[in-house]
Design a protein that fits this description.
Elements lengths: L2 E8 L3 H12 L5 E4 L6 H9 L6 E6 L22 H9 L5 H19 L5 E4 L9 H13 L5 E2 L6 H7 L3 H10 L3 H7 L7 E3 L10 H8 L7 E5 L6 H6 L4 H12 L3 H4 L3 H4 L12
Length: 284
């Protein structure tokens, strides 16, 4: 069995970026998704570029935390992005204009390309926002416009119910996200891109529970392209001000750094597929 292990939230806070860099340098990750909306993105992008040949780098599309790249009417008129519940309410009520979402996605991709020097290897969403109504159609439209014909993967956070039940853990959360993402993988493939065919990593983020045991559950019932999300890092005040998952990130870091068989589990072909692609010029 081989897995694609992706660390989310690179660039969210100094401790998160530092932890992901350490795991990447140790060969204990397949990929990381970057939040390019933060003030520290340009600073944190420089060391990330050094890992391009061994680590897949993607955009972790952010529409719910901190500030938008620039004010967007109906989405972030003051510059502050809405909380997840607010974004979901706008999306499911049809009050989220696709043009506004497209504009923000373009700007985040521009920021990624400008600092990394290449198109992303994959795209996913912070809090899985990329599968919401309007957001999914805006995202796939933008990706077709910018990256048609490229070997880009778009994360599908859904999985079959039988696989979710076999893994256990926060089953209700995994099933709920799977419901939100219904039909997403098919839409991704119809747009000409790849999607994973199984997905794990849902966690209650309980600091009293063993992440090592939880990770063992994530390995159950894999598909051919089994993608596992994780959230490692080092706690710091910057992180505590932005995200409720703080202490648990250090536990994930420690477990991933210490697990002896982890490098052998990682699928080596997928991260390196980006090497054959030409650089993508960032939009002005």
């Amino acid at each position: 069995m081989r897995i694609v292990l992706c660390a989310d939230d690179y660039g969210l806070a100094e401790g998160v970026s530092r932890g992901i860099l350490a795991l990447g340098r140790a060969g204990r990750l397949s990929a990381t998704g970057a939040m390019v909306t933060t003030d520290r993105w340009k600073r944190d992008a420089a060391p990330l570029r050094e890992l391009r040949l061994g680590l897949a780098l993607g955009l972790h599309l952010n529409l719910t935390t901190g500030r938008a790249v620039s004010p967007v009417p109906e989405l972030a008129p003051s510059g502050d992005l809405p909380a997840l519940k607010r974004l979901m309410a706008l999306a499911f009520s049809g009050r989220l204009p696709e043009a506004c979402v497209r504009a923000e996605i373009h700007r985040q991709l521009d920021r990624f390309e400008r600092e990394i020097g290449n198109a992303p290897d994959f795209v996913d969403g912070h809090q899985h926002v990329h599968v919401l109504p309007t957001v999914r159609s805006a995202l796939l439209s933008v990706l077709r416009e910018r990256y048609a014909g490229r070997a880009l993967l778009v994360r599908d956070p859904a999985d079959r119910a039988d696989r979710i039940l076999r893994r256990g853990g926060p089953v209700a959360k995994a099933l709920f996200v799977g419901t939100l993402a219904r039909g997403f993988a098919e839409a991704v493939r119809e747009a000409g891109f790849r999607a994973n065919d199984s997905f794990a990593g849902f966690s209650p983020f309980d600091e009293k529970a063993s992440f090592g045991q939880e990770f063992q559950r994530f390995l159950r019932a894999p598909g051919e392209l089994h993608l596992i999300m994780c959230h490692p890092g080092f706690p710091d005040p910057e992180l505590a001000a932005l995200d409720p998952v703080v202490g648990r990130r250090r536990q994930e870091f420690d477990a991933l750094m210490r697990r002896p068989d982890l490098p052998a589990l990682l699928w080596p072909g997928w991260p390196r597929s980006k090497v054959t692609r030409p650089p993508c010029k960032a939009a002005a």
